[in-house]
Amino acid sequence: MDPEYVAYCGYYYCRLCGYHSGKLVAAAQQLYDEAKGYRSLELIVKSKNAFDFDEFLKGLVWLAHQDHPCKGCRQGGGWSWRPDCPIRTCCIEKGVDFCYQCSAFPCSTLTEGPLQEYMQRFIEANRQIQRIGLKDWIKQRYGRRAK
């Protein structure tokens, strides 16, 4: 259990993330090898017009070749599609570990704009961390998996 791997938003524990750990990269490589070697899969997919098989393989190749896909939120990683996470940026600028430690919590970064479903999760996670403490929150949320 390492608090340094709890994201600034308070919702993610990076050590359990398959993208951070490399599990997804390894799985993509294995699935690519299987799919490429099992040529009838391409025929089945194309005959059912299920999805673009070539694009599927292209996505697997991309994922399989990510050397270090994510360092973790507090180490400058985080959402790979959002390297400029506004929550991380704000917490760093204000010198806080989590949003709840800010006098403006919950601010407009969390209550307005896109991705409100996710932002509500972040607000609730921060409230729980504030209420029971970080170590108990990690234990409660992740139990044995967080070791």
Explain what the structure shows.
The chain has 147 residues and is an all-alpha fold. It has one domain (3-146). The chain is built from eight helices and no strands. It has helices spanning 18-21, 23-37, 39-47, 53-64, 86-94, 108-111, 116-132, 134-142. The protein starts with 17 loop residues before the first helix and ends in a 5-residue tail after the last helix.
Describe the structure concisely for a colleague:
54% of the residues lie in helices and 0% in strands.
Measured on Cα atoms, how large is the radius of gyration?
A: 19 Å
The number of helical segments is 8
Mean pLDDT: 86
One letter per element, helices H and strands E, the order comes to HHHHHHHH
Low-confidence regions? none
Considering the chains and any ligands shown, give keywords for the structure.
8 helices; 54% helix; single chain; mainly alpha; elongated; 147 residues
Write the layout of secondary structure elements.
Blueprint: H1 18-21, H2 23-37, H3 39-47, H4 53-64, H5 86-94, H6 108-111, H7 116-132, H8 134-142
